[in-house]
Amino acid sequence: MRVDLFDFDLPDASIALRPASPRDSARMLVVDGATRTDRIVSDLPAILRPGDCLVFNNTRVIPAQLQGRRGNATIGATLHKRESLRAWRAFVRNAKRLREQDEIDFGNQVSATASDRAEDGSWLLTFAGTEPVETLLGRAGHMPLPPYIASKRPTDERDASDYQTMFAELPGAVAAPTAALHFTPDLMAALDSAGIAHETLTLHVGAGTFLPVKVDDTLDHKMHAEWGTIDAETAARLNEIRAKGGRVIAVGTTSLRLLESAHRDGAGIAPFEGDTAIFITPGYKFRAIDGLLTNFHLPKSTLFMLVSALMGRETMQAAYAHAIADGYRFYSYGDTSLLLPSK
Fold first, then answer.
1. Which tens digits make up the pLDDT trace of 169-182?
2. Are the beta carbons of 310 and 1 closer than 8 angstroms?
3. Which of 44, 74, 262, 275 is 20 to 30 A from 229, alpha carbon to alpha carbon?
4. What fold characterizes domain 3-61+160-340?
5. Per residue in 212-244, pLDDT tens?
6. What does the record give under GO molecular function (predicted)?
7. What is the pTM of this model?
């Protein structure tokens, strides 16, 4: 499909620079088939049905942005995927000043050697020493805010907590699963009281999620792989929920992509551990989920293509036009949408 079919005009004023407070007071556009309703996130227990299940991503964002020097050159790096115990694939700023086997000094006794430049321009950074890389990042790294926020203000201490979900447990993501940022302990208690279950899986979100689509046709776009896992017990419980008539609703596109990657025809959602580079565009047949809670996405992004595949492109273009006109806040710190496709 042509990428320009997924374009729309978005005013800069629509981009949220801070999250709502409290988190569950964010606005929520409910798109149920052809019906649109303006609600807030704390309404979820009244909107979902007993027996439904929300699926959260329990990845934890690491301080994956680094600023260092190679000789007289300033080098910026954003880690996006672990390749081994001490090596991460990274997107590098000022990469023209970098050569194979150059050492980058990131300060605070943290350094890495650059090698194996890939076709997408990323480098493999192998960190020196024996301390865990997470320890090194804790000394020298910064929270990797999305570029559409970082370009408007610097990262600060608030982001260390604002950009983590209440489910964050397993470190490894370089971007937050932002739909889950709206959840609070009080909201989870209300959902539990309403008979709405929840499960967790892990997908370590990579920086590739922020990369623009630079081709004219979706067939020519290559997704970056991300590592994820669903254990056998979780898969079995999710299959049981659907067998009993409950709906599996992914909280965030990361949860959705992993659930769809784990689905096996005839077996339902199966245990999964490994990389996924699934790219969902209109025409895709969803097999593992019955709904999606997700924030508002960039024009011409793979994520807007995904929600268009779920609900229909014209439906989502109209929903986004309504959201913009009605003052909804977009992107990672913005408001959210609950998408329930017609069966």
1. 999 999 999 999 99
2. no
3. 44
4. QueA-like (3.40.1780)
5. 788 999 988 888 889 999 999 999 999 999 999
6. S-adenosylmethionine:tRNA ribosyltransferase-isomerase activity
7. 0.92
